[in-house]
Amino acid sequence: MYQILIVDDEKMIRMGIQKSMPWEEMGISKAHTAASAREALEIVDLYHPHIIITDISMAEMTGLQLIEEIRREDDDCKIVVLTGYDRFDYARQALQLRAQDFLLKPVDENELMQCIRRQVDALEQERRQREEEELTKRTRGFSQQAQLEMDMCRLITGTEWKETEETKFLARYPDLQNQPMQAGILLLDIPAADSRENRLFRLWSIKSLCLEVLDEKQAGITFNDGMGRIILVFINWKTGRDNEEKARELIEFLESESGSRIRIVLGSPQIGPAGIRISYNDAMYSLEHEIKKGKQLVKMEWDERRDSMFRDTFGEFKQAMLASINDAGAFMHVLERFFQSMESYNISGRYACRCLFELASAVYYTYIGETGERVNDRLDGLMESLRGMDRVTAQNVAMDFFQKLLNREQGDEYELVRQVKKIIRNDLAGDLSIPSLADYVHVTPNYLSRMFKRLTGEGCSEYITRKRVEKAKCLLETTSMKAGEIACLVGYHDISYFSMAFKKQTGLSPVRYRMQTIQRTENL
């Protein structure tokens, strides 16, 4: 509802208008009156009416002067001039002052009513336009935040994160390149007696406060990881402020605003987006092994710990690869994950070469023990090649060694399968039918299907479905996107078919899966 002000020094006119119009029917909640321009300005300051009907000829200050005063502060108010003087110069001045209409006394009641309705309609249209613009702005902002959160989650977890994805990430967020960063895991102590609704509200409130303090002030990035935990990435930009100091200030602010006890586990300081994953892994290690409940801020020294920390991880991967030595596809899949782990822990080139040679030796002797077949001087050649290499080059050399050792007769076929897998991972929303993939790598669909199954132990269609469901799970865990939107992003244009494929893989519908994710978050 809107308010209107009638300004006229003739009481009969202003009171007549006030009493004769069906205001509520026209969308007007209050009709004010003023006997002079001075009185009108006081009412404008007090009530801010949306529509003003004013005479021109008044003592002390004319109606045109009144309009000029109002326009200095308010461009949106609708102004109608009502005068007994049919003068062109008055009408011209009124238009120059952006008056909406110019009526002559005595005015017909219906004509005045229609004029007021036009102003109300204009106000309504402007209101709707503002709401639409605000909604568009909020939607765009939400979409950008959702995209950033999804990208950050994939970055720290390594989910489908390849060189092409890193290139896309840097293209979206170029300011993050070469920036000093440090990841932290925020822990919220929630009373066990709290209801589910209170728990969710507390988490949402804390995250909103972090977005306000870090993201909106460009001091960092707030998002959720795959387990629903709140992750903070402190960014130094050009301020040079210590991240530990910022974390302590944030803890103090969050506790004062929320009334909850807050703890932050910091990872190691790193540079650029590639380092965020390393910092996050360090924070996870602290969370699992070193955290002390009495400390609100946990920070470790990582230079001396990383090698020993990685040693356990290396042992697990080595056992997994030795167990799959008779399945080249499974072996290479574990090897790729091992390479990602080396990157996440930021293993030095020298230590990487030691690990790779130890792994190669174990695989080599297990292979000849099972097959009785020796590959002349290959291990000695690998040891010589690895000497002095950086981590990435050493990984490439080791990959070539394992491919030739385990796939000596099918190296070309394995490379073709790797190419098909890469296409699938990079374009889950596209047309990933076996005929289209076969056409891309220049083989027949039947040959691709047989080769893919033989080398990986998994059908090509099953692999596509599995990768699509894995991405859908990540989106369900880390965003608030609707199931239909997620279905389109992972290549399903029929939500029923998507739900069926998802449930077949996970045992749960997409909606139920998201609910379980929320429940896991509550129990943290």
Summarize the structure.
With 524 residues, the protein is an alpha/beta fold. The chain has 21 helices and 11 strands.
Number of helices: 21
Q: What ranges have pLDDT less than 50 throughout 5 or more consecutive residues? A: none
CATH architecture of the largest domain: 3-Layer(aba) Sandwich
Largest sheet: 6 strands, mixed
Overall average residue pLDDT: 81
Total strand segments:
11
Q: Give the % helix.
A: 55-70%
Shape: elongated
| Category from helices, strands and their pairing | alpha/beta
Q: Can you tell me the CATH topology of the largest domain?
A: Rossmann fold
Which value, in Å, is the CA radius of gyration? 35 Å
First and last CA, distance: 48 Å
Can you identify the CATH superfamily of the largest domain?
A: Response regulator
User: How many separate domains make up the residues?
Assistant: 4
Q: What is the CATH class designation of the largest domain? A: Alpha Beta
Provide key terms for this protein.
524 residues, alpha/beta, Rossmann fold, Alpha-Beta Plaits, 4 domains, 6-stranded mixed beta sheet, 5-stranded parallel beta sheet, 21 helices, 62% helix
What does this 3D model show about the protein?
This protein is an alpha/beta fold. It has four domains: 2-128, Rossmann fold, CATH 3.40.50.2300; 173-298, Reverse transcriptase/Diguanylate cyclase domain (Alpha-Beta Plaits, 2-Layer Sandwich); 306-408; 428-524, Homeodomain-like (Arc Repressor Mutant, subunit A). The protein has 21 helices and eleven strands. It has helices at residues 11-20, 37-47, 63-73, 88-96, 109-157, 163-172, 196-215, 243-258, 272-290, 306-323, 328-344, 349-371, 378-386, 391-406, 411-426, 434-440, 445-456, 460-478, 483-489, 495-506, 510-522, and strands at 2-7, 28-34, 51-54, 78-83, 101-104, 180-189, 220-224, 230-235, 261-266, 270-271, 297-298. Strands 6, 7, 8, 9, 10 and 11 form a six-stranded mixed β-sheet that branches. A five-stranded parallel β-sheet has the order 2-1-3-4-5, with helices on both faces. Helix 10 (306-323) packs parallel to helix 12 (349-371). The two termini are 48 Å apart. The model has no long low-confidence stretch (mean pLDDT 81).
